């Protein structure tokens, strides 16, 4: 991580920056066996990107509880929630996801964004929603340097 702490303001190519952000990210899965690692990584991150499955209504209450627990002791950590799988029939819309995750309770001190995304099932192309999310994340990353 430290090796990547160069002055990103000097970089003017957004594509390069987006790729660099992805390189610098620490993806941690959401499975039960991996959740104990979340708090371990949290102090090292500039920005939390929390991905939920918008079509998995049954697990949204757990996703809400875990998100709130994760950030309860860090009132300023910026959070980007990706409401993924928006392409699936029955997926909750952004307003429903906002309510299901109780994002209005997350506090007004931090930057918080909620974006609907989806990826092609075969991974063949990057959707425009995912490109928008990547660009937002890159811009936030720049601001946080
Ligand atoms: N239609 C659609 N499928 C997706 C999307 N994102 C991931 N998938 C597919 O969903 C399947 C499961 O992927 P994920 O939900 O990301 O996997 P996971 O989070 O490890 O699995 P769970 O913990 O069981 O939810 C894979 O076949 C992915 O290709 C999406 O936005 N739309």
Characterize the structure shown:
This protein is an alpha/beta fold and 145 residues long. The chain has one domain: Rossmann fold, CATH 3.40.50.300. Helix content is 37%, strand content 12%. It is built from five helices and three strands; from the N terminus they run H-H-E-H-E-H-E-H. It has a three-stranded parallel sheet, sandwiched between helices. Helix 1 crosses helix 5. The radius of gyration is 15 Å and the shape is globular. The two termini are 12 Å apart. The site of guanosine-5'-triphosphate has 10 residues, from loops.
In short:
InterPro entries: Arf-like_GTPase, P-loop_NTPase, Small_GTPase_ARF/SAR. With 145 residues, this protein is α/β, with parallel strands linked by helices. Helix content is 37%, strand content 12%.
Order of helices and strands: HHEHEHEH
Main sheet strand line-up = 1-2-3
The secondary structure category is alpha/beta
> What is the percent of helical residues?
25-40%
Residue fraction in strands: 5-15%
Assigned CATH architecture: 3-Layer(aba) Sandwich
Most strands sheet = 3 strands, parallel
CATH topology: Rossmann fold
How many helical elements?
5
CATH class: Alpha Beta
Rg over CA atoms: 15 Å
Task: Give average pLDDT, whole number.
Answer: 84
InterPro entries: Arf-like_GTPase, P-loop_NTPase, Small_GTPase_ARF/SAR
GO molecular function, one term: GTPase activity
Organism: Anser cygnoides (Swan goose)
Keywords: GTP-binding, Nucleotide-binding
């Amino acid at each position: 991580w430290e090796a990547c702490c160069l002055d990103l303001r000097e970089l003017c190519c957004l594509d390069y920056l987006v790729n660099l952000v992805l390189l610098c990210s620490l993806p941690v899965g959401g499975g039960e066996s991996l959740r104990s690692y979340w708090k371990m990584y949290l102090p090292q991150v500039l920005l939390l990107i929390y991905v939920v499955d918008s079509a998995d209504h049954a697990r949204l209450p757990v996703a809400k509880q875990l998100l709130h627990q994760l950030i309860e002791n860090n009132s300023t950590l910026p959070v980007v929630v990706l409401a993924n799988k928006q392409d699936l029939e029955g997926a909750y819309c952004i307003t429903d996801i906002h309510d299901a995750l109780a994002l209005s309770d997350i506090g007004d001190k931090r930057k918080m964004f909620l974006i609907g995304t989806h990826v092609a099932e075969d991974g063949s192309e990057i959707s425009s929603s995912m490109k928008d999310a990547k660009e937002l994340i890159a811009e936030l990353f720049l601001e946080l340097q």
